[in-house]
Amino acid sequence: MSAVEDRLAELGLIVPEVPAPVAAYVPAVVSADLVFTSGQLPMKNGELMVTGKVGGEVSVEEAVACAEQCALNAIAAVKSMIGDLDRVAQVVKVVAFVASTPDFTGQPGVANGASELFGKVFGDAGVHARSAVGVPVLPLDAPVEVEIVVRVGS
User: Fold this and answer.
1) CA angle, residues 55, 12, 107, in degrees to nearest 5
2) Nearest-CA neighbor of 38 among 146, 152, 151?
3) Alpha helix locations (H) across 22-145?
4) What would the pLDDT profile of 67-105 be if each residue is shown by its tens digit?
5) pLDDT at 107
6) Burial (CB count <10 Å: 0-12, 13-18, 19+), residue 109
7) 28 has which bridge partners?
8) d(CA 133, CA 129)
């Protein structure tokens, strides 16, 4: 097991199976030394953790947990492309989409569920640029979707 997976285990987490795409795309692609993931939904054991809008039927705490699951799913997509997660040299960019009610302005706090996990798992290599975007709806009525770009070393 890789050092990254050891850190995940210390947090009580494992790299899940890569969730199956819900449309016509692949979970990730490699271009030179970068891996780009598709948007990852909070799928756990083949199902969305919760559905609905943050600030409505989904609490901030639930949304943060969803963002963490999205991050785990993104890590799984990266692993499917490079094999060994210890090859991740840098999480370059994280984009978090938060389906929220019009008056909800806490998208950055929700996105921290993903960002903080990347920091715990990858250490300094987990420090990244980020966008946290509020949207009216996401696929399957998911409350959160996260995509990442990572740089891979040899």
Assistant:
1) 20
2) 146
3) 60-82, 107-122
4) 999 999 999 999 999 999 999 999 999 999 999 999 999
5) 98
6) middle
7) 37
8) 13
- For residue 106, give the 3-state DSSP assignment: coil
Residue 20's pLDDT is 83
Q: Are 111 and 67 in contact (CB under 8 A)?
A: yes
Residue partners of 76: CB distance under 8 A and separation at least 6: 15, 16, 17, 18, 19, 27
Strands 43-44 and 34-37: unpaired
In tens, the pLDDT along 8-54 reads: 999 999 999 998 888 899 999 999 999 999 999 999 999 999 999 99
β-pair partners for 90: 151
Can you read off the two tokens belonging to residue 98? 């938060």
**Backbone angles phi and psi of 62, in degrees to 5:** -65, -40
CB atoms within 10 A of CB 24: 5
Are the C-beta atoms of residues 54 and 106 closer than 8 Å to each other? yes
Structure tokens at 62: 């639930």
